[in-house]
Amino acid sequence: MLIVQQFQKRSFIIPSLISSGLSYLSKDIRLADKMEDGELHFPKTEFEKSQNTSRPLFQRPEPNYPGHVPLYNFEKLLMFLGSSIGAFVNPTNNNFIVSLGESTAFPWVLNRLRTQMLNDPSGRQILKERPHMTSKSLNLDELKNYPDNSLGKSYFLWLEREGVSPDTRVPVKYITDPELAFVFQRYRECHDFYHTITGLPIVREGEIALKLFEFMNLGIPMTGLGALFAPIPIKSSQRRRLLSVYYPWAVKNGTICKPLINVYWEKIMKKDIDVLRSELGIEKPPDMRELRKKARSKKKQVA
Amino acid sequence: MFQVIRRFATSVSNVADIVIIGGGPAGLTLGTALKNSPVTKHLKIHLVEGGKIIEPLNSFLETPPPNYLNRVVSLTPSTIGFLDSIGAWSHFNQERTQSYDDIVTYDGVSGARMNFEHPDIATMVETTNIQAGLLSRLNELNSQQEVKLVIQEDTKVTSIAKDSITQWPTLKLSNGDSLTCRLLVGCDGYNSPVRHFAGIESRGWSYNRWGVVATFKFADTEFRFPTGWQRFLPTGPLALLPLPNGYTSMVWSTTPELAEMLLSLDETEFLSMVNAGTRLSTEELSMIYDLAKSKSPDLLEQIQWRLNLFAGKLKPADEENFPLQVSEIVTGSRARFPLKLSHADTYVEDRVALVGDAAHTTHPLAGQGLNMGQEDVKSLVGALERATSRGLDIGNSLALEPYFSERWPQNHVLLGVMDKIHKIYSTDFAPLVAARSFGVDVLNSLGPIKDFMVGRISGNSKR
């Protein structure tokens, strides 16, 4: 009881001492601030006082390219934590995948990709021209008139079959270096061409298989995380099919095929897709939609 | 009988106290310093040089060439102090020298940088200017003295042997003369014949690197105080050192195949390549090297593209972290030389002493090679002065040993430090880059330690 009383007494005395001491010092502190700002001898005019020149408490650095949002490292870490949990729980939400991709696109990873591009003539051309893929730049309407089995036609057919458009790609926001941001943007925009050339559908299973293929070929961390964790929550029959058919294919083909980031897709639309595949060194995997259909009908028969 | 007399006569007329082999900066400084010293000026000294030097060196002072020569060295304050003390510095063509206060080194992989500041931390001088100034001072000394130093130019040493009676070194010269001396000093460079004669082993290794040199003019875009720049690329450092009027002398140490590539470029390509070398990342450089090696026609365009990207990213405040771009090359100033480390087991034998490159060669990354030779000369002259004033035979090991025991350990430490710096920087292995960058950042913020280092490289704290 005694201690409490004493404590209470002190808790009254000490703060009052501190505050009185501060109020005694504060005059000096304010005076020093004034001297430092030069206001003591050159007081502010009324006009200067009316201008609000004080800086805001928090200000982001200048963006390095249009649309850039400079992040501090701790923000990137938070973004990584949030988006990785989100992507695991709800992988169909594109926002999570996009943020996971950017928060793990470390400079050294993108730097390695850029080095690959610099050392390849067409990769260099891509870096120099910085093309952006949109339905307009790709001339989608013309593509359907391209010869059968050309890359352009196959791409068009694939877009139709899966019901997607090249305009849905989100622009890169959080990568610091403009050129590295372009490299990541390029990966994102070319993703549909990887679907086209492998024939993998955009269903969850197909995306997972393609992620491992991309990781083996490009080494982007997000794709590796996807290939590692995404198969955990899916159906066991699908996982079995992935592990027995598509993962071995992805490991083999992703490793031996030429770096896909160096392919200037827009310039080779007329090329025969089989010829292109053999040039790049990719074997087409078994059609996933077919396999799924077969498995489903088998299941029905058994039932 | 006649033969005996004749032989006697020849040997008498051609006996010298000291014969210096080599008319480079080391040999000329030694001759000048000995003639300048009141104790040793009476000695009979011959300087034998294989090439023609007197006429070219005199004409360098009388009618200086319009362009800077490509053999340029940086002199430390200590070296300049010594040259001044023997009265030679005022004979140099001062307009062609450039002193500077600031050296900036930066890591080609991580960008970690270090600033060395000290008034007149170094002075850039053409080696021909050094030789010409020394020769001019030597002529002045000769005109004041009875015993003159004899320069035998355009004369090669065909053989060195020991005299059968006196055991003194006897030289056979290409003009048919023979020359016997009490002390033979080898200032005759890396492949020193004198060292071979004395049977002194020189140990070391080739760096498997070449130094590519050239003289440039900086682009006239903004005012800069003269500054020494050095960028450590994994293939070797690229240094741009200031000359007067915005000119700059480059030494780019690099692998033999890249050196060959650099020499095979045309001059505009070479200019762009040097600008790329001072700024672009190692990945970009390796792409550019590959393009250059394959003689790609769009090399210039690709370099310009990367340089423009670099300039676009650079914030105005960071511009002074890099040297200005070079915009002109002095035609025909490109050359290369091999880099190696070597150190002789000893500098002195009975009646033989080695000075400068004959005794040691080093990597040019801190511009210490010639300065070490000047320190050698200073020390050797001191030893000879002491020996003379004590009445010792100047060719005797007792007279020469102090020179060796003073200089060898100091040179050995410097050679070792240069070697380690070269090795630490010749990798782009990430953990090592991180470690060396951390070290540089720490050192750069520790004033006293940096001052000590500046003292060492500028030769101020030695005594």
Automatic annotation (TrEMBL), chain B:
Cited Pfam families: FAD_binding_3 (PF01494)
SUPFAM superfamilies: FAD/NAD(P)-binding domain (SSF51905)
The enzyme's E.C. designation: 1.14.15.45, 1.14.15.46
Gene3D superfamilies listed in its UniProt record: FAD/NAD(P)-binding domain
GO molecular function: 2-methoxy-6-polyprenolphenol 4-hydroxylase activity; 4-hydroxy-3-all-trans-polyprenylbenzoate oxygenase activity; FAD binding; oxidoreductase activity, acting on paired donors, with incorporation or reduction of molecular oxygen, reduced flavin or flavoprotein as one donor, and incorporation of one atom of oxygen
Keywords: FAD, Flavoprotein, Membrane, Mitochondrion, Mitochondrion inner membrane, Monooxygenase, Oxidoreductase, Ubiquinone, Ubiquinone biosynthesis
Needed cofactors: FAD
Pathway: Cofactor biosynthesis; ubiquinone biosynthesis
Positions of the FAD-binding domain: 17-215, 335-385
Bilayer topology annotation: Peripheral membrane protein
GO cellular component: extrinsic component of mitochondrial inner membrane
Subcellular location per the Swiss-Prot or TrEMBL entry: Mitochondrion inner membrane
Catalytic function, reaction form: a 2-methoxy-6-(all-trans-polyprenyl)phenol + 2 reduced [2Fe-2S]-[ferredoxin] + O2 + 2 H(+) = a 2-methoxy-6-(all-trans-polyprenyl)benzene-1,4-diol + 2 oxidized [2Fe-2S]-[ferredoxin] + H2O; a 4-hydroxy-3-(all-trans-polyprenyl)benzoate + 2 reduced [2Fe-2S]-[ferredoxin] + O2 + 2 H(+) = a 3,4-dihydroxy-5-(all-trans-polyprenyl)benzoate + 2 oxidized [2Fe-2S]-[ferredoxin] + H2O
UniProt-listed InterPro entries: FAD-bd, FAD/NAD-bd_sf, Ubi_Hdrlase_CS, UbiH/COQ6, UbiH/COQ6_monooxygenase, UbQ_mOase_COQ6
Family listed: Belongs to the UbiH/COQ6 family.
Subunit structure as annotated in this protein's UniProt entry: Component of a multi-subunit COQ enzyme complex, composed of at least COQ3, COQ4, COQ5, COQ6, COQ7 and COQ9.
Protein name: Ubiquinone biosynthesis monooxygenase COQ6, mitochondrial
Taxonomy of the source species: Eukaryota, Fungi, Dikarya, Ascomycota, Saccharomycotina
Gene from which this protein is expressed: COQ6
